[in-house]
Design brief:
Elements lengths: L2 H23 L3 H37 L2 H6 L1 H10 L12 H33 L16 H22 L5 E2 L5 E2 L2 H41 L4
Antiparallel strand pairs: 1-2
Helix pairs in contact: 1-2, 4-5, 6-7
Amino acid sequence: MGTVDLVFTIASFLFTLLVLTYLLMGDNPFFRFATYTFIGIAAAYLVVITFTQVIWPHLFRSLLVGSMEERSLLAVPVVGSLFLRAKLFPSISRLGNPSMAYVVGIGAAVTIGGTLLGTLFPQTAATVQLFDLRGAAPGGVNSGLGIGATLLDGVFILVGTISTLAYFHFGARKCADQTPQRPPGIEALARIGQYFIAITFGSLFAGVYMAALSALVERIAFLLNFRL
């Protein structure tokens, strides 16, 4: 084992012990030291990656050795970032509103576009495809299930998708007693959607718990098998 590997092995052993002290003593200085160290290393790593992958190649290098066209294109982001710094000072914070609005707008557009193209449209297409009975025919994708099982699977997923979306429907109307209430049909679907959401959260929690348990077992095995 080389010197570098030995140092990293000893550091892994010590920090594993420091983190596991939380199980015995709760929040304590040893656990906080390990946590702050991890956070500091992660923040330093993020700063280095941001500088080497974004700031240096796309800003400083373009300013130093880039063409006139590249330097001209940098004028807008540089000025926008300077105005964004104005948010640090309450007296001139309004100057940073356009830059902040631009950043938030771009972030919202990317998020909505990713949600539609990466989740909603593929989910809709996958739900519709379940009712393609040609897949249940001999030689099809779902030929082992049969037509009845394929239809039952499609109906189950369709009901789960619609009822889950209905649960997040907030178009309530005021009744005679001025109490906001959703339409009866939406309310019935929302109650069904609650069960699908509960099952989903339960499955996610079980997956997270199994991943954490696997990490704990791996760390305990590392401590038991630690050799210099």
